[in-house]
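4.2 Preliminary Data

To establish feasibility before requesting continued support, the project team ran the inverse folding procedure on a target of 149 residues. The structure was first converted into the token representation described in Section 3, and no sequence information of any kind was made available to the design step. The complete token record follows.
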């Protein structure tokens, strides 16, 4: 039994400040704390953290996963290409949009791992996700390629 579930996260009772925190706080945790602050740009941590979050999500279909990703305001996922064993997704309005470009850096790995964890609940086989583009790298979008095998 988990101490916290995704549903628990929605139980919010903050009278004055409400249910939102500013994007700069999320970015600070992600980029200053994790990407910059952890060894290897937080690689192992982000994979574990992202997958755990994804697996906690109440989703039943790929559509559920994409809708939730947008509801959480991580970004707006658009499917570019989908076959039986591959899905190519672009993220519009990603949380990283607007940050200074730093070529050679792709920073949205945790968000990809959330997708992977959530998709693993509705697909029995093996899933692997690869971040292939990122605004911070100077690309026009953040993009992931997901392989189902
Ligand atoms: Zn991004």
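Position-by-position output of the design step:
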């Amino acid at each position: 039994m988990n101490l916290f579930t995704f549903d628990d996260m929605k139980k919010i009772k903050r009278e004055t400040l409400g249910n939102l925190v500013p994007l700069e706080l999320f970015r600070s945790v992600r980029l200053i704390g994790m990407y910059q602050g952890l060894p290897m740009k937080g690689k192992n941590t982000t994979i574990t953290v992202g997958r755990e979050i994804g697996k906690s999500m109440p989703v039943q279909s790929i559509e559920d996963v994409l809708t939730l990703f947008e509801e959480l305001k991580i970004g707006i996922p658009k499917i570019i290409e989908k076959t039986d064993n591959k899905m190519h997704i672009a993220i519009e309005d990603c949380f990283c949009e607007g940050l200074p470009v730093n070529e050679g850096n792709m920073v949205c790995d945790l968000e990809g791992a959330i997708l992977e964890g959530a998709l693993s609940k509705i697909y029995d086989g093996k899933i692997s996700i690869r971040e292939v583009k990122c605004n911070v790298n100077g690309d026009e979008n953040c993009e992931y390629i997901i392989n189902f095998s």
